[in-house]
Amino acid sequence: MYRIVRKEVLAPTLNLFEIEAPLVAKKALAGQFVILRMDEDGERIPLTIADFDRAMGTITCVFQEVGKTTKELGALAEGDFLQDFVGPLGLPSHVENYGRVVCVGGGVGVAPVFPIARALKEAGNEVIGIMGARTKELLFWEEKMRSACSELRVTTDDGSYVRKGFVTDLLREVIEEKKDTSLCVAIGPLPMMRAVCGLTREYGLKTIVSLNSIMVDGTGMCGCCRVTVGGETKFACVDGPEFDGHLVDFEEMARRAVIYKPQEQLAHARYMEKGSHNCGCGCGGGK
């Protein structure tokens, strides 16, 4: 069992868990992920490692409540336990001194891009950070990102904080201003990563993305997380999760991402219906 030693609500429906998992923390590196399960009947959920503390033996994960299982997960509190917590999984980020790199985090993608930016800075790179969200309310970890970057630029879609625009607007400015940028790392929603890759392709700027495809076991056995990269089939769990964004078939990935949408919507609807049923009849509704 794995104890939740700290819980923080970063924004509405956006939660941070610091989880006691010393063996995972001992080996964790930037770019890797874990798969957790709430209980023996629970769904397996892949979450990217947002931070780790080897001395304390903890792993930090950030997740958004979207469907049934993530809402159930969000209902847990400090002191509660998780049944399973498997990791670190996937290949770690390739870190070396590139010179100047730009790290782009969109929405919840700020969490996984943070340890990568930190590792790149520790390797001697000049790290230009870009972070964005739909609104100011959904922005988080600005100071953590600032500490991991040489320079940080922030934007919001609606202009409620700093400036109005998308991360791609800031990215174009950085590329134009700093001609010798060697690498871009972008993590966020699929449309955002696709847009970033479309932009950096114009400039010939190598771009790494982290793919959050549908995943079950996380060890390359089920094949659910397969993606096409450079015309070849890859498994995001063991070949990634990071890939050359200019080679990713985003159109295919977008189709696969919604393949179970009807089942997800049904499970969510049933969960919400159960949660709203509080008749006192002992049926378990509302619990």
Task: Explain what this protein looks like in three dimensions.
- Mean pLDDT is 90; it is low at 276-287.
- The chain has helices spanning 22-27, 68-74, 110-122, 142-148, 167-177, 190-203, 250-257, 261-276; strands at residues 2-11, 14-20, 33-37, 45-48, 51-53, 58-64, 81-82, 84-89, 100-106, 126-133, 151-156, 183-187, 207-210, 226-229, 232-235, 242-244.
- The longest helix has 16 residues, at 261-276.
- Helix content is 29%, strand content 30%.
- The radius of gyration is 19 Å and the shape is globular.
- The chain is built from 8 helices and 16 strands.
- By secondary structure, it is α/β, with parallel strands linked by helices.
- The protein has a 6-stranded mixed β-sheet, sandwiched between helices. A 5-stranded antiparallel β-sheet has the order 5-6-2-1-7.
Poorly predicted spans: 276-287
**What is the C-alpha radius of gyration, as a whole number of Å?**
19 Å
- Return the string of H and E elements: EEHEEEEHEEEHEHEHEHEEEEHH
- Biggest pleated sheet: 6 strands, mixed
Q: What percent of the residues sit in helical stretches (DSSP H or I)? A: 25-40%
Mean pLDDT: 90
Strand sequence of the main sheet, in spatial order?
11-10-9-12-13-16
> How many beta strands in the DSSP annotation?
16
The fraction of residues assigned to DSSP E strands is 25-35%
Helical element count?
8
* Terminus-to-terminus distance: 22 Å
Structural class: alpha/beta
Overall 3D shape: globular
Layout of strands and helices, then pairs:
Blueprint: E1 2-11, E2 14-20, H1 22-27, E3 33-37, E4 45-48, E5 51-53, E6 58-64, H2 68-74, E7 81-82, E8 84-89, E9 100-106, H3 110-122, E10 126-133, H4 142-148, E11 151-156, H5 167-177, E12 183-187, H6 190-203, E13 207-210, E14 226-229, E15 232-235, E16 242-244, H7 250-257, H8 261-276
Parallel strand pairs: 9-10, 9-12, 10-11, 12-13
Antiparallel strand pairs: 1-2, 1-7, 2-6, 3-4, 3-8, 5-6, 13-16, 14-15
